[in-house]
Amino acid sequence: MTPFSRILRTDWFGPLIIVILAVVVIRAFSPQFLSPLNIQVLLLAIAVNALIAYAQMMIIAIGQMNLSVGAIGGLAAISFAGMMEVWGIPAPLAAALALLIGLLCGFVNGVMIAVTGISAFVITLATLAIYKGINLGITEAQPFYGIPANVKAFGNGSLFNLIPLIALPTLVAAVGLWFLLFRLPAGRFILAVGGNEHAAQLSGIKVGRTITLAHAISGFLAAGAGILVVARVQVGQPSIGDDWLILSFAAPVIGGAILTGGHVSVAATTLGVVIVALITQALVLFNIDPFLVQVVMGGLILVAVGINRLRETRMQALKRSV
Amino acid sequence: MTSHDVSHGSNGPISTPAPSSGAPSSGAPAQLSPLRRFLLTNEFGLILLIVLFAVLFAVTTRGFTTPFSLFTLGRSAAVNIMIGLSMMAVIVTGGLSLAVGAIGVCAAMFLGYLIQSLGMPWPLAILAAIAMGAALGFINGFAVVRTGLHSFIITLATMSIFFGVMVFLTRAEAFRGLPPVFADFGKMKFATYFSPLLLVTLAAALGLGWLYRYSVLGREMLAAGARPEAAELSGIRVGRMIIYCHMLSGALAALAALMLVARNGAAIPSMAGQLGQDWLLPAFLGPVLGGTLLNGGRAAVLGTCLGAFLVTMLSSGLLLMRVGEFWVQSFLGLLLLLAVLMDKLRRSYLARRNLV
Question: In the beta sheet, which residues pair with residue A159?
Fold first, then answer.
């Protein structure tokens, strides 16, 4: 196999081509598209959405689904804002505690699924309601407005007037996840369990522990996304996370993640987020109705799963012929 | 996401004997008297719980047994049961539909458009709205069968598409100029406390019960859900059955939304929340509490009705007990967890005793 054909077969190659094409086309129609301000706006959206997508990607990696990503993110967001406003806890400590809450929520999901063997869909549907209910019970649907100045500065700040500070935690998370999934035993176990749970168990992997780990990481990432949203919009709104469900699946699927598990890519998922952000921007730049964003997202998911399906069958045919 | 992903304990009563690990002997299940058999069903457990909580709420809260409270309870139960039945119709195939809420809202808004903008007479518009629900269900079913992908991801995408198109076309504005028949039907009371909406739901439930028990079509749907390969070999067109199930689900979702229109007196785009997600919890609570197997092949119509009724009663009772309306959602989530755990325990108990 030549190096070039190997690149062709990677997950990130297709999305990368689409991103480059999209940038060129949009730039051709709208000169202000690549202005520093617009790039910053794009990166802000990508930074938050990438964490949401990673949270779902970890669960797709083990061949399950997590409906409670948005509920965990929302609960962490209002805990973060609430702890700072009501108890006056300093921002870094509040962020750490909120991340811990997210980790715990994910851990609970994972333990319930691993111990009972009930499908992840039902368990996370139930915990979605529980976490969202706790969120509403605490806030009574009222936002927390008392966000400290340093958090606001973090949310508004940028490096060289180009890269928002909010993008830095996302970058760390992306590199960390890549290292975990492709360089550490724990990550390899996650992918092995997703690929074939039975075979993983027979080869001595502790399946329950691996499932729990994946869910805990997913909760941690969702909480991170919630905190970043609070820093960005500068209000602790109880409705944070309500609209994450479609998005969380769209990006990994566009990035070629296979929903039966065992096959995900951090780079391609990130490119999936970029594609979604570019399309949303294009709709705004070309004055297309913002209501159509939902339609486009749904259409993207359908197209992406269709393409993944084709790739999957072709790969299998290729393997068989070899 | 293959069907093993949504596994749900061992097999149900009408499928093959459960692969029980600790069974003393395999073979025919132990003979039970019909009464004892009934006492071990999900349905009996639900009836017991309903009676228990009804007594608890009647004793501890003021106003639970007033005619008005019973009327609103019946009205909400009618809608929730219908939503549950709509999901059940898809779960029968071993799949699920995240799009029930989106389909319902689309059908209701279509009704509003037909009446208010086109001046269509309302009986015709109701039929057209239900047909709209079935048509959207057809799209789901067709996509699932044609692509061979799990219905979860298909309906995740279509829920976004349906809802987005609806919001785009209606500009997110409600249709409030509906003829008074709708609001009148929603407010109508029999004997001061009985809502006629319950009769609609009852009729739908009886129709579904007949379908799954006595009609060839219903039996073929169940067979296609239980063992697709076996069903295919015995001449059932599995793909077509799956499409029919999705269409049925769409029509029932439309019916549930029309009942909400009657209750609100208007067709409102936000009546099922963002993308229709607010229906997801009630949609799954009913069937799961009622013992519908998530991997398909069994439809517990009575159980779904009882389950949805229990959920509605619990949420209105909790509101009356002043638990705080915001916490109710958490309780419903806990209830779903408890229900699936209990069901799991009950099934493994029955399997161990070789009673199934």
Answer: A163
Confidence of residue B131 (pLDDT cuts 50, 70, 90): very high
Query: Where do runs of H (alpha helix) occur along B265-293?
Result: 280-290
**Percentage of chain B modeled with pLDDT above 70:** 90
Residues in chain B closer than 8 A to A56 (CB atoms): none
Start-to-end CA span in chain A (Å): 12
pLDDT tens-digit series, residues B316-327: 888 887 777 788
- Provide the mean pLDDT of chain A: 86
Is B221 a member of any domain? yes
Of B141 and B353, the structure prediction assigns the larger pLDDT to B141
Question: A65 and chain B: CB distance < 8 Å anywhere?
Answer: yes
Q: What is the CATH number of the domain that holds B196?
A: 1.10.3470
Task: Give the whole-angstrom CA distance, residue B283 versus residue B87.
Answer: 6
CA distances from A314 to A257, A269, B1, B325 (A): 15, 21, 19, 52
Q: Which residues contact A218 (CB under 8 A, 6 or more apart)?
A: A55, A56, A58, A59, A66, A69, A106, A109
Q: What is the mean pLDDT of residues A223-236?
A: 92
Give the integer Cα–Cα distance in Å for A128 and A123. 8
B149/A309 Cβ within 8 A: yes
User: Would you state the torsion angle of the CA atoms of residues B40, B199, B256, B66, taken in this order, to the nearest 10 degrees?
Assistant: -80
Tens of pLDDT, residue by residue over A166-188, are 888 999 999 999 998 888 888 88
What integer is the mean pLDDT of B172-192? 82
What residue spans define the domains of chain A? 38-242
Domain span at residue B294 reads 68-326
If one counts the domains in chain B, the total is 1
In the structure encoding, which two tokens stand for residue A191, read together?
Answer: 């992918």
Instruction: Please give the ipTM for the structure prediction.
Output: 0.82
Judged by a CB distance cut-off of 8 A, whether residue B152 touches chain A is yes
B interface test, pick of A62, A68, A121, A264 with most B CB neighbours within 10 Å: A121
Conformation bin of residue B94: beta by default, left when phi > 0, alpha when psi is -120 to 50: left
Nearest CB to B164: which of A63, A121, A292?
A292
In a domain, B37, yes or no: no
Whether B25 is covered by a domain: the verdict is: no
**Nearest partner of B296 among B91, B3, B8, B16, judged by Cα:** B91
Residue B240 included in any domain: yes
Cβ contacts of residue A175 below 8 Å, gap of 6+? none
Among A9-18, A235-244, B209-218, the minimum mean pLDDT is found in A9-18
Task: Give the number of residues written for chain A.
Answer: 322
